[in-house]
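Protocol step 4 of 6.
Sequence for Calcium-binding protein (Streptomyces cylindrosporus) entered exactly as in the expression construct, tag removed. Do not edit the line below.
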Amino acid sequence: MRMRTTVAAVTGALALSALVAPAALAADGPKAPAGVAASNKAAHSAAGKTAFSTADVTGTPYALNATFSNVKVNKGKNIVVGTTNVVKVPVSFTLTHGVEVNIHADDFVSAVELYRGASFDDEEWWIDSDPAKCTDTSDTVATCTASVAVDPFTLLNEDAGAWKAAAFAVAWNGQLPDDPDLDLSKVGVAVKDKVAAYNLQRLSKLTVNAAPEPVKKGKTVTVTGKLSRANWETTKYAGYANQSVKLQFRKKGSSTYTTLKTIKTSSTGTLKTTTKATVDGYYRFSFAGTSTTPAVSAAGDYVDVK
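Step 5 output, structure tokens:
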């Protein structure tokens, strides 16, 4: 089973030990693009929780004259992740700022953090976007876009469920994050927390097989299948136990499925039930989904009734 170092909720992203090396963060923690890791630390420092380990770091960031609105994560949809492929999640927002704030400066960073936990300053696990690309719509307003790479290899099954998002911007104003004499009072920070809520879900799969085929009218059709979902710790798919699943039927020539009955999966995710054959058509199982697992329907299995 995959394991990772537990990060105390009170420290969250502040537990990162690297100062801001452009390469990455701690080997057993989430990965963030160059520039965002340091800015994330500065954003948390605004709440008085500095993550900078340099002995001579002084001050607390000032409130940057910038605000966020229209924040979208994955276009408002839940994020579904399988066992192998990295999922690129689009994020977007409107950034409104004072005329004195140069959002196109080389050392200005805006980004979005996806996290599991109570708040931006009390997260349990998190993933940062790459630095946002912003296009001016006026002297003080810009539309910004970025993406977040969600790698299933960095996730545990317990990460499935409710997540939130926070948007943050940092103006370094010439200060260097790895400078031993870093003065945070010269660094501007703006944070807007809980700008989006969504579920991070384990990709689901559902199979069906109806037999015998063909079958005589009025005889029994046995329908079997299995509901499974991604296990991020084993990188395989495992049966989803004790879940309600609908058996549905679509008459040949129709485009609409009708629910015949609802049954539950076994301890290994398998399904088995029977029904009477009446007319030619397609049988399928359909799962409504949960907070941790998306809805899924099997492709219909055709049965010819003689």
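Step 6, annotate. The chain has two domains: 12-201, 204-303.
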